[in-house]
Amino acid sequence: MTMASDLPHPRVPGEAARLPITMLNPDFPFSYDHYLAHPAGLGRVPDLKLGTEVAVVGAGLSGVIAAYELLRLGLKPIVYEAARIGGRLKTAEFSAAPGVVADLGGMRFPESGKAFYHYVDTVGLETREFPNPLSAVTPSTLIELEGTAHYAETADDLPPFFTEVAEAWRRALREEVDFDAVQEALRSRDVATIKRIWNRIVAELDEQTFYGFIAGSAAFREKSFAHREAFGQVGFGTGGWDTDFSNSILEILRVVFTDADDKHRRILGGAQRLPDGLWSHAPDDLVHWPKGTSVAGLNGGVPRGAVASIKRGEGGGIRITEKWGATREFEAAIVTCQSWLLSARIDTEETLFAPEMWTAIERSHYMQSSKTFVMVDRPFWNDIDPATGRHVLSMTLTDRLPRATYLLDDGPDKPAVILLSYTWNDDALKFLSLSADERTDLMLHSLKKIYPTVDIASHIVGEPITVSWEADPNFMGAFKNNLPGHYRYQERLFGHFVQHELPAAQRGVFLAGDDISFTAGWAEGAVTTALNAVWGTVRHLGGESAPGNPGPGDVWDELAPVVLD
Ligand code: FAD
């Protein structure tokens, strides 16, 4: 998918409203999409360093992108992976029908994530709009709260109460945090204005929860408790947000400012096609390596195994030891697994990071998340109930156990998929100890209360697929979400790739991935932190950015996230 904003836009007064929003992170408003699209490329390493091996720990999206860009720069990424390429972009196939898939992690990708879509285009993947609540491709949405169901084909079909809730949220954003001004600055990539407003918001709201922000806003104070409650249960855009209520409001503002909660697309065939595709993709513009070389080719077709320890090596580099004992020393290592794993699962030498970095790593707060999918014989939800004139089943938001049920199909007369339930935190923990069948039974029981005349179970074919990310030792959680007061930790983790002022003993390991980014839970952050780590690695090896295309570390002094006292 090619985006209209792939090239820099002139800043003409009054034009800003027409420009698209990008996930230009307000903490560090660097245009990664322009950086990637620049014909000069990302930089070069000294000739003597061409072919140098660099370790990449983790073959999720961040690791695969880091490896892909190292390859393009003429370096040799050696990729380590404990499980399967793709990480949290994991797509499972229903065993009875290969090709019918379930995205267990990331599944809907905002159009504003331009760096992510740069790689979707690189691999040539097809995308389609994701059927979120009330979106144009969602035939109908049903909101069921406290036993009362509201059926809607468009937002206008909902009772005025829901319009009031949505309007209160928009008003709270406008009145409390200058929403329109921030979005206009994001559209025109006016980094000075973005930073001026955002740095003030960070200082004022770092210690505020999402719920505290809602409850304290004039817009919601003038409404009833039921408005706040419905906002939490239904949200707007992607579904209910109340399991995020205890998180820092800054986490939510980054999402809504950058339209990350809007205009979502899914990857046809499953999200995992992106990391899989990049793993075996041979770039056209290679340095040093012969035409046709891919990351897979440099790694003999498979990644190395799980990393058991990361230490300072005898040669002064970074020594990586695998679970089964193989050891190799590298001049640099890019580490992309969830950062808790650096202390909980990997024996990491303490002196590689400053004590305050370890504090930041340990304070990471991960969301739990579970999903349960079933395959059905056909997208029967498009059938119309003659008694009501409505679709027999709708995309459903409910305060019952499943919370959100999504309907996914690739056309009539083919097997389709129901994501019976997608939950976070407390709602996800309710299922942690249950099997896939037990979860499915519970979801069907709840849905039967909402749709008493529909026999969903009779359409199910084969076995359900379920996941609880917190139960997987290679992840230990779904994705990070900072708590109030955590900004300082995030700022340390994000900025660690700029290492030239660090003591020598703390250089050479570059952290990247979802939880190093300011937008954890969105693949765009995995992409952009991989690019930071690649920039850091190039600099570490004595290289530099391409002329005319400064990298993220080159503009650090101008754009760096605000440092709180
Ligand atoms: P990972 O994918 O976690 O990659 C790290 C890799 O390290 C893993 O493959 C892991 O196996 C490996 N590893 C762990 N330990 C070791 C070891 N000792 N040695 C070697 N390798 C190791 N994003 C969106 O944009 N849209 C969404 O809709 C969305 N929804 C999501 C829903 C869920 C439930 C989850 C979990 C995530 C979602 N995300 C979404 C976020 C997105 O999936 C992530 O941002 C992205 O996949 C993270 O990639 P990563 O490479 O940073 O980390």
UniProtKB/TrEMBL annotation:
- Gene3D superfamilies per UniProt: 1.10.405.40, 3.90.660.10, FAD/NAD(P)-binding domain
Give the matching SUPFAM superfamilies.
Answer: FAD-linked reductases, C-terminal domain, FAD/NAD(P)-binding domain
- Look up and give the organism this protein is from: Cryobacterium algoritolerans
One example of a Gene Ontology biological process annotation = amino acid catabolic process
Q: What is the lineage of its organism?
A: Bacteria, Bacillati, Actinomycetota, Actinomycetes, Micrococcales
InterPro entries on file = Amino_oxidase, FAD/NAD-bd_sf, Flavin_monoamine_oxidase
User: What is the name attached to this protein's record?
Assistant: NAD(P)/FAD-dependent oxidoreductase
Q: Where is the Amine oxidase domain?
A: 61-534
Kindly list the GO molecular function terms attached to this UniProt entry.
L-amino-acid oxidase activity
The superkingdom of the source organism is Bacteria
Instruction: Please provide an example of a Pfam family that matches this protein in its UniProt record.
Output: Amino_oxidase
